[in-house]
Design brief:
CATH class of one domain: Alpha Beta
Helix content: 25-40%
Number of strands: 23
CATH architecture of one domain: 2-Layer Sandwich
Distance between the termini: 65 Å
Radius of gyration: 28 Å
Length: 653
Amino acid sequence: MRRGKIMENGNLEYRAEDIQILSDIEAVRKRPGMYIGSTDERGLHHLLLEVVDNSIDEALAGVCKNIVVKIHRDGGASVEDDGRGIPVEKHPLYNKPALEIVLTELHSGAKFDKKVYKVSGGLHGVGIHVVNFLSEYFKIVVKRDNRVYMQEYSRGKKISEIREIGRIEDGRVILQENVDLEIDSPTGTYVYFRPDPQVFETLNFKYDLVKGKLRSLAFLNKGLRIVLKDLRTGTEEVFKYDGGLVEFVRFLNEGVQPLHEDVIYFEDQENDVRVEVAMQYTDAPYETLLGYVNDIQTEDGGTHVAGFRMALTRVLNDYAKENSMAKDISITGDDIREGLTAIILVKHPEPQFEGQTKAKLGNSEVKGIVNSITIKHLRKYLEEHPATAKIIVAKVINNAMAREAARKAKELVRRKNLLDALDLPGKLADCSLEDRDRTELFIVEGDSAGGSAKQARNREFQAILPLRGKILNVEKANLERAFKSEEIKALISAIGTGVKEDFDISKLRYGKIIIMTDADVDGAHIRTLLLTFFYRYMRDLISNGHIYIAQPPLYRIQKGSQVIYVYSDEEKEKVLKEIGNNAIVQRFKGLGEMNPQQLWETTMNPETRRLLRIDIETASEADRLFTLLMGDQVEPRREFIMKHAREVMNLDI
């Protein structure tokens, strides 16, 4: 581009020839964050899930029964399905193969007029063409019309024409070239891509992250078989759930005690909108409600969730009154939902989402549809199962009584004014700045570490809140008990947002809330307790990226005047190998062993420290793990620990 001349006032001239028109490839590669959100780990996995979503859309159309996802040793990933296969013939209007159009043109596809796909999740994303544009190498294989075709690309530009590489004979695939196909079906699509290191900050696909997403998709698509293979480690898992949402609810409730054996399930359809609901009450002091539209998780709810909640409140209130079970007790929606695990899946031909993240459904008609279907089927279930109905209503009444007791306890910790120092806990060493975007709160275990942190900090923007011992495990406690805990009250007062239904992020006092504990077992336990508290009581702090974990060093290595801090045993061995013998190695057992200067340099100085930001990748998996690890059920937790001990330690336990 020609740079404009500088005018007399010092500004650059702005002429018609300064306007640029970028090609689709240039637009995506120049601003990838606009299409995939970011170029970090989240954006990397977004690419893989975009390809998976295409296969899921084939499953939603009823033409795909198997999906195989592989993480390859070379940094690439592949997705194969037994769907219909993307057409390869020339498009009658554009005189170009349909496959090339799909791979190179933004806003191209077969999901706009609903002739090929009645419902789809594909429209929520960026499309396979963006995956192609952001891949160093991209290969697609199509099985269709008894032929096998392949084409290759690099950074969105084709490096080969579409060519026939095999045929289908008697249902068997016969290839002329070596391709990593696994599903032996006469139709389908295989996509392999290797993300571009020029674009992405990391090229490491995380197995557990991919696994959580694929498992949820298998639950949502009853009978669909999804295979995940990590060729780097040899790990392989198969996800197939003939029980669908019913199995999903049982899976989420592994770490808690259900109050009734059956998972209540119903499905129905109205005006081309299909609704599926599965629900079960437990003894947990919280609600787990997941909403999905065409397999897209709507983390902020929407009209489908609102319709379900309205119906649930009406049906259970009516049942309690009709059976004289709620005398002189006021029951709210929160009382009715505490202890509930529910999944709502809506399949809609024209979903309308609010915002780019598609986290909330906006279709107004869906609220009435879900409401009427839920009322109809839930009333029928309660009438046919009176014993279960009475258990559920008794739970709701107990919730109402506990809520009233908790309300009185909560009044003791509510703050009248955001910056009123009189309301702050006495142990808090506050900072002088009031600008939330610049302030930080360090939550530190124990008075010793708290004392070091107070001396080490920058008093202008860093506040210190020392906690005594391990805080209450809120996974096992109701609100009334939680608000009797001095440590919990100190946390709520210092942070300022309130909790649960009273949560107001505009009252947040610190932009960063940093958990700073020792790098040992006790420190890990305290971190887990704190994260459980934030997840259950202030989840939006995690969702909005305000919660961090400090990364104190494990070792201080000194040779002569050179001092190096390292954060793992592997890093220690590498440094010792580089600097040679006669180095002095100091192992830090806790934060209290560091003097204030060391603590500032390694753990608190924004210029040199390492922080781990906590986020929620898949709400259902996060919910399940908190329940599993912090709940009352011992056996599921024991199985989890034993399984991962084998994986991590490579022991035959």
